[in-house]
Every structure is written in structure tokens, then in C-alpha cells.
TrEMBL record:
The lineage of its organism: Bacteria, Bacillati, Actinomycetota, Actinomycetes, Propionibacteriales. It comes from the Bacteria. Residues 1-57 form the DUF1918 domain. Coiled coil: none annotated. Pfam families: DUF1918. InterPro entries: DUF1918 (IPR015035). Residues 1-36 are annotated as: Disordered. This is DUF1918 domain-containing protein.
């Protein structure tokens, strides 16, 4: 997984009644765009994320 600042991270839910969690990548701490990422989630919470297999990056429209 590779990302840039401004891309979105989407973490899918493993439950049918839950919606995916989406946030904006505000910092990339890994080498060559790899994780971990600092993500500002849509609820305003910000945290360090090591994305799992259920997550994917959506490139920003540059």
C-alpha cells in the first residue's frame, strides 16, 4: 500500500450494519509512501494508522 498526503484512507467494516470509515491522510511516516499514516477521520479524530487488509487508499484529485 502506498499513499500521499491528501489521499483518502477507507477502512471497510466487517459488519453489515456498519458503514466504511473514511479519513484524509495528513502525514505519511513510512518509506516510499508506505504505512504508518496519520489520518484525520471524518468524525474529527486524528490518529496513527497501520492499515489492515480491509483498508484501501483513494488517491486525491491532484
Amino acid at each position: 500500500m502506498k499513499a500521499q498526503v491528501g489521499d483518502s484512507l477507507v477502512a471497510e467494516s466487517n459488519r453489515v450494519d456498519k458503514t466504511p470509515r473514511q479519513g484524509q491522510i495528513v502525514e505519511v511516516r513510512g518509506e516510499d509512501g508506505g504505512p504508518p499514516y496519520v489520518v484525520k477521520w471524518s468524525d474529527g479524530h486524528e490518529g496513527l494508522v497501520y492499515p489492515g487488509a480491509d483498508a484501501h487508499v483513494v488517491p486525491a484529485q491532484h
